[in-house]
């Protein structure tokens, strides 16, 4: 029969059956604070020995904590559940100490949140559970996680680190989609890759558009933000509002620049570098008129420039050198500006830049007549499109590079679905002395174009750190890696091989097409042309020809001539509409649109 007796603390000791021989002192201190605040909630269990003393078989930590509380009369005697014999005591000791486990993090979050709702403070919660106040704070930050995320955490489908990322998203549908994708693969997806999935339609505050507009101006326009509670990252959720603010501010600065500097025109570009902009506009670069220095100024500039090579200039001298250099570089004359303009753009850091001055095709005859540019340049510009293949206008090299990156991404995306084909190709690569199929080093193969609009390969390909281990004990890490089983090893090998797949970069003009056919590589499965990622970056003549191709019309028909006369923004919008899945069109035309890819991608 089970008996609970009040036993004098002085008569209690740790019985040899108790397995908790040396618990951490921090645990004892936390438990002592808990008992002093709340009382002894759970009895000790013990066995009365010869001489009348009681050996504690379960509750060794409580007994050690009570030793710190003997200044409190409440704990002079202690309730102890006594076992009838040593065999029963041994069973009790094994059961209580082996089955006891800490609360699951999901249950901690639930319990702490429930206590907070009842008005219990963080310090009191920490005492009650024997944890630190900082631990309670971390758990309470996650109290707002959606129930599906907590359920996945409780079922160990995701870890606590992955669960914490979900505070970024308040879209239940998107949360369920991401959980379905990552659930059951803890550790495979990094925090960054989960954030990318959850915030597919948002941009970071480090985006050059966000830096240029400013988060306060974006929010004033009605834009929403979400914040990563742990990393402190800020996301702008309403990209349409950001783009509207960006366009308005850009247009305002363009007009200010035109008025202040006297250019005939000032345009804006969303490109992040000046490279290729003049090609897109079919423009001729206009260089400034050279300046002149006096003999004394020229000698002084040469002296300062020589000393500058040794970092031997004070601030005043550096400013003087800049002033003299600016005079020597010259400036555009008012006559030049009457025929020319500049394009404003933001660099990768969000800083406003301007291109060289340019003369547009429409202004080139007048500029040549005025002696601003050479007449031969106008003729050359007129003939340039005819020199391109099939007479089509040329795409900029920057856009071509983006198209090739998309092509590589489509190839890797398809390869992920066919592990056996990847392994076959690896074996062939390793045993062959002719050609290479993989970039066998740890440098990432670039499959990310400058704009990711309309581009959606498997997110693990874009986050090259997803699933990577930074362990310093390689032997221990390798043993743990193998214990995860053959399926995990195969999954990792497939992903890493896919990331390195790049046959086209090694001159394999024959191997790449064979692989693409076997893997059924479909760039349109991961990329759709949009205004941002393609149309506005292509010359107007290219768009005119593309419209006729997709519509199945002749270039001299009324519809084609109407399209040609439209402004470029309207052309881009009309072409983008063709690629929208809800746009109604004849089956034959839909087939052309569905199959179309820029020839420059290949």
Structure description:
One of its GO terms (cellular component) is chromosome. Residues 5-98 form the ParB-like N-terminal domain. The chain is 50% helix and 9% strand. With 602 residues, the protein is α/β, with parallel strands linked by helices. Among the domains are: 3-99, Conserved hypothetical protein from pyrococcus furiosus pfu- 392566-001, ParB domain; 252-377, no CATH class; 397-525, no CATH class; 535-601, no CATH class. Helix 20 (397-416) runs antiparallel to helix 24 (486-500).
Entry keywords:
602 residues; alpha/beta; Conserved hypothetical protein from pyrococcus furiosus pfu- 392566-001, ParB domain; five-stranded mixed β-sheet; three-stranded antiparallel β-sheet
Question: Short description, anyone?
Answer:
InterPro entries: Chromosome_partition/occlusion, ParB/Sulfiredoxin_sf, ParB_N. By secondary structure, the chain is of the alpha/beta class.
Uncertain stretches = 380-391, 431-435
Percent helix, as a range, is 40-55%
* Number of beta strands: 13
User: Total number of helical segments?
Assistant: 29
What's the overall geometry? Answer: elongated
* Spatial ordering of strands, largest sheet: 1-5-3-4-2
How far is the N terminus from the C terminus? 85 Å
| Average of pLDDT | 81
How does the helix and strand content classify structurally?
alpha/beta
Radius of gyration: 36 Å
GO biological process, one term: chromosome segregation
GO cellular component, one term: chromosome
Protein name: ParB family chromosome partitioning protein
Pfam family, one: ParB_N
């Amino acid at each position: 029969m089970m008996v609970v007796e009040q036993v004098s603390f002085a008569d209690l000791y740790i019985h040899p059956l108790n397995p908790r021989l040396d618990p951490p002192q921090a645990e004892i201190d936390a438990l002592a604070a808990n008992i002093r605040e709340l009382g002894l909630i759970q009895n000790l269990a013990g066995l009365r020995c010869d001489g009348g003393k009681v050996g504690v078989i379960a509750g060794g930590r409580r007994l050690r904590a009570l030793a710190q509380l003997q200044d409190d009369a409440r704990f002079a005697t202690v309730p102890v559940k006594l076992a009838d014999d040593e065999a029963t005591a041994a069973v009790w000791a094994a059961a209580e100490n082996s089955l006891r486990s800490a609360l699951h993090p999901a249950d901690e979050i639930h319990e702490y949140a429930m206590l907070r709702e009842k008005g219990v403070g963080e310090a009191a919660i920490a005492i009650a559970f024997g944890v630190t106040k900082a631990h309670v704070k971390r758990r309470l930050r996650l109290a707002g996680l959606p129930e599906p995320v907590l359920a996945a955490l409780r079922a160990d489908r995701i870890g606590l680190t992955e669960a914490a990322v979900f505070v970024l998203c308040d879209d239940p549908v998107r949360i369920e989609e991401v959980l379905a994708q990552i659930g059951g693969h803890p550790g495979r997806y990094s925090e960054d890759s989960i954030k990318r999935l959850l915030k597919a339609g948002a941009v970071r505050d480090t985006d050059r558009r966000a830096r240029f507009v400013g988060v306060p101006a974006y929010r004033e326009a009605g834009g929403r933000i979400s914040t990563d509670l742990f990393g402190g990252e800020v996301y702008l959720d309403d990209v349409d509002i950001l783009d509207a603010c960006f366009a308005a501010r850009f247009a305002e600065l363009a007009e200010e620049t035109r008025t202040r500097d006297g250019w005939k025109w000032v345009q804006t570009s969303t490109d992040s570098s000046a490279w290729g902009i003049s090609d897109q506009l079919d423009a001729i670069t206009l260089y400034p008129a050279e300046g002149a220095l006096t003999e004394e100024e020229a000698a002084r500039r040469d002296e300062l420039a020589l000393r500058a090579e040794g970092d031997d200039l004070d601030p005043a001298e550096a400013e003087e050198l800049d002033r003299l250099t600016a005079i020597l570089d010259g400036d555009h004359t008012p006559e030049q500006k009457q025929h020319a303009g500049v394009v404003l753009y933001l660099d990768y850091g969000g800083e406003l830049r301007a291109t060289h001055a340019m003369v547009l095709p429409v202004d080139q005859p007048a500029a040549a007549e005025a002696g601003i540019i050479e007449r031969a340049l106008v003729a050359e510009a007129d003939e340039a499109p005819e020199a391109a293949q099939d007479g089509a206008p040329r795409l900029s090299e920057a856009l071509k590079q983006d198209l090739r990156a998309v092509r590589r991404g489509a190839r890797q995306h398809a390869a992920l679905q066919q592990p056996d084909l990847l392994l076959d190709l690896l074996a062939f690569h390793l045993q062959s002395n002719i050609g290479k199929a993989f970039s066998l080093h740890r440098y990432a193969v670039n499959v990310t174009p400058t704009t990711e609009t309309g581009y959606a390969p498997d997110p693990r390909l874009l986050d090259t750190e997803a699933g990577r281990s930074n362990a310093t004990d390689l032997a221990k890490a390798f043993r743990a890696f193998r214990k995860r089983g053959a399926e995990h090893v195969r999954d990792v090998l497939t992903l890493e091989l896919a990331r390195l797949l790049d046959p086209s970069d090694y001159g394999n003009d024959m191997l790449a097409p064979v692989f693409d056919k076997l893997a059924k590589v479909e760039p349109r499965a991961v990329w759709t042309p949009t205004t941002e990622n393609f149309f506005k970056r292509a010359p107007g003549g290219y768009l005119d020809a593309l419209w006729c191709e997709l519509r199945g019309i002749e270039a001299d028909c009324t519809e084609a001539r109407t399209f040609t006369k439209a402004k470029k923004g309207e052309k881009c919008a009309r072409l983008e509409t063709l690629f929208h899945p809800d746009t109604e069109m004849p089956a034959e035309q839909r087939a052309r649109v569905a199959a179309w890819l820029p020839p420059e991608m290949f």
